[in-house]
Fold this sequence. Notes:
It is a single chain. The protein has helices spanning 2-6, 9-14, 25-32, 36-41, 107-120, 135-142, 200-214, 244-249, 261-267, 287-298, 309-316, 381-401, and strands spanning 97-101, 129-132, 152-157, 163-176, 179-191, 220-224, 233-241, 279-281, 303-305, 328-334, 341-354, 361-372, 406-410, 425-436. By secondary structure, it is of the alpha+beta class. It has three domains: 1-62, no CATH class; 65-224, Gcn5-related N-acetyltransferase (GNAT) (Aminopeptidase), CATH 3.40.630.30; 233-436, Aminopeptidase. The radius of gyration is 22 Å and the shape is globular. Bound molecules: coenzyme A. Residues 56-59, 120-122, 189-191, 196-202, 224, 226, 228 line the site of coenzyme A. Coenzyme A (COA) binds at residues 56-59, 120-122, 189-191, 196-202, 224, 226, 228.
Amino acid sequence: MSDLLSLNPALAQQLGVADGDLSSKQATDALKKLSLEDIMTGLAANGKNAKDMASYKFWQTQPVPKFGEKAEIEEGPFKIVDLEKVPKEPGPLVDGFEWVTMDLTNDEEIKEVFDLLYGHYVEDNEAMFRFNYSVSFLRWALLSPGWSKEWHVGVRASASRKLVAFISAVPIALRVRNKVLHASEVNFLCIHKKLRSKRLAPVLIKEITRRCYLQKIWQAIYTAGVVLPTPVSTTRYYHRSLDWQKLNDVGFSPLPHGSKPQYQILKYKLPNNTATKGLRPMEEKDVDAVLDLLQKYLQRFDMAPVFTREEVVHWLLYKKDSPDEQVAWSYVVEDPTTKTITDFFSFYCIESSVINSKHTSIRAAYLYYYATTVALQPHTQAQLKERLNSLVNDALILAKKLKFDVFNALTLMDNALFLEQQKFGAGDGQLHYYLYNYKANPIAGGVDHMNRVDEKGCSGIGVVML
Length: 466
Ligand SMILES: CC(C)(COP(=O)(O)OP(=O)(O)OC[C@H]1O[C@@H](n2cnc3c(N)ncnc32)[C@H](O)[C@@H]1OP(=O)(O)O)[C@@H](O)C(=O)NCCC(=O)NCCS
């Protein structure tokens, strides 16, 4: 059991056995309630038996799958919503608070959202790091093609006017197997620390749902580190050190038993220059080629966005004349003879505040979309693996040059083919994918039943959430 728990540090910590000591009665009792599979997939979490629907007072009322429905099902919506019956006004809030629609084109209002997230957004289990999404990032994430002001929902304290909670959505055309859903992508749910555990989250979720329904959007995709009923897929975080010393200083990367700092630094050393011929930053003239390549590549996955040209421009192309700082970096490979675009990859930046350390923040690159023509032609797994490894190695070199400290990736898309070879280490975090008002059969998340990267199965997830 100790060995198994060492493969799932997040769960070990929740059970209070982070040091491998299984002697406490509380820990053994909690463990007895879990199946082996639950332990390994992280489905057991939160201190409550995560598979017990009765403990999800809110989610059990929602059009989402119950736990344990294993049989193959016909995919489709849980319910057809009658627009006439959708309330025209928001539900009531507790006294002293009121709904606001945020205007994120206004610098002051987007700064308010930034401040709320800066102080209160997602932290790791030990409260050592907190995501610090920049204002530029929020503009990129929340003002994407088709965005609607109505979907940037805030709660203010009536007296002080302070923003104390937020939830948002942007539109997405999402293919789930062979059906394309016009859905919303819900993100940035955040409640001020002083207002936690007061059942405000369900109120926010109901409000964003109402506002999506009013625009005839009946489905949503969202992700969370916590287990809710019921993930359509579970992926795992992997981290690749770029500046091991700094990551060690801030407590992110412990020194492995029996190693020395200089060995670790050597282990993660990268060449100074990229190796792929024809690799260069993506430009405006590449948009159509990238769109075509990406659309075809994403066909490989069970669930993926259906990108438009406008979206490729928005999500992948850095506009040099933009007053915003750059948040996403995209590169293409241009064949020197044919001049065609054969591959592309991208990553984006999220800093994390380090709570209590001499360094104030960690700069993390997150692997975003990528594609290669190797996958579109007849190929062996070994050929695809080789190509992806060289592309991702170049991505690491570029990210290092851009002063990132760590490169993060999930076990989605074809990532299982390069994570270990590129020296990514398994993280203790998981990212669960959820669909609202849509029944879908499970999608592989790129980890096996032991929560290890699954090179054979890979993942059916082709959607990267910010
Ligand atoms: C996530 C957060 C908004 C939840 O608020 P809270 O005050 O802890 O919880 P509340 O009392 O308001 O609501 C609890 C309900 O929300 C659900 N919930 C908690 N986190 C959730 C999440 N990330 N997504 C959806 N539902 C969530 C709970 O399961 C519970 O419902 P249940 O009774 O059906 O189980 C708050 O903890 C927060 O702002 N955390 C930091 C930011 C964050 O983690 N955001 C989510 C990113 S995915």
